[in-house]
Amino acid sequence: MSISLSTAASLYDRVRRVIPPIEWPAFSDDIDAILALKRERNAVILAHNYQTPEIFHCVADIVGDSLALARKAMTVDAQVIVLAGVHFMAETAKLLNPGKTVLIPDLGAGCSLADSITAADVRLMRQRYPGVPVVTYVNTSAAVKAESDICCTSGNALAIVESLGTPRVIMLPDEYLARNIATQTKVEIIAWKGHCEVHERFTPADIRELREAHPGVTVLAHPECPPEVVAEADFAGSTAAMSDYVGRHKPARVVLMTECSMSDNVAIEHPEVDFVRPCNLCPHMKRITLANIRAALEENRHVVTIDPDVADRARRAVERMLAV
Ligand code: SF4
């Protein structure tokens, strides 16, 4: 089955500001096929904010940051979920939808933060700090979540830390997120040494250069950036919070200190705002393409599985977060 010409035209209308006409024919065939496959297989596509615009705006059913995807994954009425994002996100979707088939189009779509820590590391932290609760960022494997008391995202980390009512918490694995949250709370935060390879590359000097080159620019930073970068920014927040900020404040010119595709996706929603785009790509997010989403649906690959005992314990940590 193929989508009608008018649907294809309206899809291109949506992305024409960020995809040149010459590139569109390279996408339209896969988009047609994916839209048809979704109907045939009763499938939905969940896409993270860092996915490219032809995925985010043309084939995704649910879009957002990690928290939004985790929440909305629980409400989908479909047999198959394709996660256009990285592996830990697909695992989280599977945790919350154990009866559904969850597919990740490329098994190599990992994450430097998720890879920075193992379940054994978490057990060692517990031995070192007995009785201190463990808050784990969702950018971790199911095995690491299973060793944790509760999960958090960059959007809710402060609320989660303060919900525990303890003077100290262990917050894993993002050192910069932990240090950024520590500036906002009296709770003592014990951090790990994990970093996001995309956000750790931004520097305060980058921001100063941007302000010089683009006077009056509003700078928004993701809390996975080093604290010195966050301190130089006008606002820090999760991808959802940055997107909300642009919608509410409508700055004349803005720069998002985060992954490149995020600016493209938000720019489409706000044509009146001028986006300056310093580009730090996430190589893991960019492994997901229309071609491998299509192949995932055609060939039912790669099915995400989690050991049942690990899944039960990891699910509890995610559900505790969702209840806060
Ligand atoms: S942007 Fe950073 S945190 Fe997100 S998937 Fe890529 S490496 Fe991991």
From TrEMBL:
Keywords: 4Fe-4S, Cytoplasm, Iron, Iron-sulfur, Metal-binding, Pyridine nucleotide biosynthesis, Transferase. Iminosuccinate binds at residues 48, 66, 137-139, 154, 222-224, 239. [4Fe-4S] cluster binds at residues 111, 196, 282. GO terms for molecular function: transferase activity. InterPro entries: NadA, NadA_sf, Quinolinate_synth_type2. This is Quinolinate synthase. Binds 1 [4Fe-4S] cluster per subunit. It catalyses: iminosuccinate + dihydroxyacetone phosphate = quinolinate + phosphate + 2 H2O + H(+). The keyword 4Fe-4S applies. Belongs to the quinolinate synthase family. Type 2 subfamily. Catalyzes the condensation of iminoaspartate with dihydroxyacetone phosphate to form quinolinate. Its EC number is 2.5.1.72. Pathway: Cofactor biosynthesis; NAD(+) biosynthesis; quinolinate from iminoaspartate: step 1/1. It comes from the Bacteria. Its cofactor is [4Fe-4S] cluster. It is found in: Cytoplasm.
